[in-house]
Amino acid sequence: MNKPDGVSDTLFVPLEGRLYATERYPELLKDKELLRLNKQFPDLLKKQSNQTEYTLLASACRAVNLDNVTRRFLAEHPKGTVVNIGAGMETAFSRVDNGKVRWYDLDLPSVIEKRRQYICETERNRFIPLSVFDSSWMRRIDQMNPSAVLIIAAGLFYYFKEETVVGLIDDMKRQIRNVEIVFDAVCAKGLKRSNRFVKRTGNRNALMHFCVDKPEDFFKKINGGAHSIEAYPFYRDVLKMISRKCSFKTRLIMSISDHLKMVWVIHAKL
C-alpha cells in the first residue's frame, strides 16, 4: 500500500518551517544541512503565502520533539539503529548523529529519487526506496541483529486509517526485535482543524484520517499490547525554549493546544 495520491505534494512544505526556526529561533532548532540545501538550491523552498508563524513553527516543533526522543534513545543505545519511515526530505540524521548510529531513511521510490537529487547517502545513513507497507524492509533491519531499533514516523500516520496504522505497527512488532517507535498524532478535534489547514493549501488529496485521543487506549489495539515510554503534549518543551520570542497569538495557540491535548508526541516499546 502506498501513500494516498497527493501526499508526496507536501514533500517540501515542512522544510520551510525548519528553515524559519533555524534562522529565527536557533535555540529551538539548528538545521545546518537545511541551510546548506537552501544555499545550494535557492529555488528548493517555495514560500507558501498562507503559512503563518504558528504553522511554520509547528513544522519545526515536530522536528524538535522527535529529535529529542531520538537523542534520548541514542544516549541509552549509542550504537542503535534508527529507521525514519516516510522520511521525505527530512535531515534529522545530520542533527542528531552521534558518530555511531546506523540510520535508514525510508520512503517511496519516487520520493527517494527526489531526495537523492539533494541529499547524499553515507556509510551510516542509507536510503531505502520502498513503501512502508512492504515488510521486506523490516526483515532487512532485523537480519542485521541490531542491539535496539527506533522507528520514527514524523507526520506520517495522519494519512492512513486507524486499522492500517495498527496493522503496520503489528508488523513492526512481529518482525523486528528490540524495537521502539515514536510518532506524532492529533486528537479527533485536532484532526478536523488540521484538515481545514490542508484544504487551505489547496492540496485536498492529502487529507488526514488517523487520530489518537488517549495513547494508552490506542496501544491496547496493538496485538499483544505495547509499553508506552512517554506521551506528552506537542508544544510542552518548545514553549519553554522559545519563551516570549514568538508572538502572543502563536504562544496562545500552542498553550491551548497543549491544554486540550490536541497533539501528542508518543514513544513506545513494542
Per-chain topology:
Elements: H1 13-24, H2 32-40, H3 53-76, E1 81-85, H4 92-96, E2 102-107, H5 109-116, E3 125-129, H6 136-143, E4 149-153, H7 162-175, E5 179-186, H8 188-200, H9 215-219, E6 227-233, H10 236-242, H11 248-259, E7 263-269
Parallel strand pairs: 1-2, 1-4, 2-3, 4-5
Antiparallel strand pairs: 5-7, 6-7
Protein architecture, described:
With 270 residues, this protein is of the alpha/beta class. The chain has 11 helices and 7 strands. A 7-stranded mixed sheet has the order 3-2-1-4-5-7-6. Helix 1 (13-24) packs across helix 2 and helix 1 packs across helix 3. It is globular and about 50 Å long. The two termini are 22 Å apart. Mean pLDDT is 90; it is low at 1-8.
Shape: globular
User: How far apart, in Å, are the first and last alpha carbons?
Assistant: 22 Å
Largest sheet: 7 strands, mixed
Helix-strand category: alpha/beta
Strand content: 15-25%
Whole-number radius of gyration? 17 Å
Mean pLDDT: 90
Low-confidence blocks of residues = 1-8
The overall strand count is 7
| Order of H and E elements | HHHEHEHEHEHEHHEHHE
Residue share in helix: 40-55%
**What's the number of helices?**
11
Largest sheet strand order: 3-2-1-4-5-7-6
Short description:
This protein is α/β, with parallel strands linked by helices. It has helices at about 15-25, 30-40, 55-75, 90-95, 110-115, 135-145, 160-175, 190-200, 215-220, 235-240, 250-260; strands at about 80-85, 100-105, 125-130, 150-155, 180-185, 225-235, 265-270.
